[in-house]
């Protein structure tokens, strides 16, 4: 499982995540799979629903269950079986590259941060040492940047 030895021909691994529900029972959820053609993946687990498990191959195993421990399970299976399995939707592998995702989150954070300081013109106290930028200017920049990023994630390099 270190990536140094491939799966046998026609085989791959279903990747499961387990964490206990409120009663301490193990809840296994299928995240996705890895194969020789796709030897790694990053799965989101932050949106998994508590108590909504899926059928898994670990029930027959006598694994000790500790109510406060998360577990990862990998089941080596035929590729045909992997293709028929449906991972939980909230664990889907992101199709957006990490730079684009970072940029979008940074834009959202900046806009939210800048907007938190918004005041009406009546609330403004004149201060000759401070410059004020109208909120609609920041919003227009934000919308233009988002649009350009959607059209071409590498526009900023030109």
TrEMBL record:
* Residue ranges occupied by any Hikeshi-like N-terminal domain in the UniProt entry: 1-91
Q: Which GO terms describe its biological process?
A: cellular response to heat; protein import into nucleus
Taxonomic superkingdom: Eukaryota
Keyword flag Hydrolase: no
Does the keyword field hold Zinc? no
UniProt keywords (A-Z) are: Cytoplasm, Nucleus, Protein transport, Transport
Recorded GO CC terms: cytosol; nucleus
Domain Hikeshi-like C-terminal residue range list: 97-157
The listed locations are: Cytoplasm; Cytoplasm, Cytosol; Nucleus
The GO molecular function terms of this record are: Hsp70 protein binding; nuclear import signal receptor activity
Write out the similarity annotation: Belongs to the OPI10 family.
Its subunit composition reads: Forms an asymmetric homodimer; required for binding and nuclear import of HSP70 proteins. Interacts with ATP-bound HSP70 proteins.
Q: What does this protein do?
A: Acts as a specific nuclear import carrier for HSP70 proteins following heat-shock stress: acts by mediating the nucleoporin-dependent translocation of ATP-bound HSP70 proteins into the nucleus. HSP70 proteins import is required to protect cells from heat shock damages. Does not translocate ADP-bound HSP70 proteins into the nucleus.
Q: What is this protein called?
A: Protein Hikeshi
């Amino acid at each position: 499982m270190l990536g140094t030895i491939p799966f046998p021909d026609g085989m791959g691994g279903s990747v499961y995540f387990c964490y206990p529900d409120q009663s301490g029972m193990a809840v296994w959820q299928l995240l996705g799979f890895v194969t020789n053609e796709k030897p790694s993946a990053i799965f989101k687990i932050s949106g998994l629903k508590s108590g909504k498990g899926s059928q898994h191959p670990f029930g027959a195993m006598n694994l000790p269950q500790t109510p406060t421990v998360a577990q990862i399970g990998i089941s080596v299976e035929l590729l045909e079986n992997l293709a028929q399995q449906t991972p939980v939707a909230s664990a889907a592998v992101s199709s957006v590259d990490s730079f684009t995702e970072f940029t979008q989150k940074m834009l959202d954070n900046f806009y939210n941060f800048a907007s938190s300081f918004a005041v009406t013109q009546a609330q403004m106290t004149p201060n000759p040492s401070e410059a004020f930028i109208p909120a609609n200017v920041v919003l227009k920049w934000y919308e233009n940047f988002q649009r350009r990023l959607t059209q071409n994630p590498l526009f900023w390099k030109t």
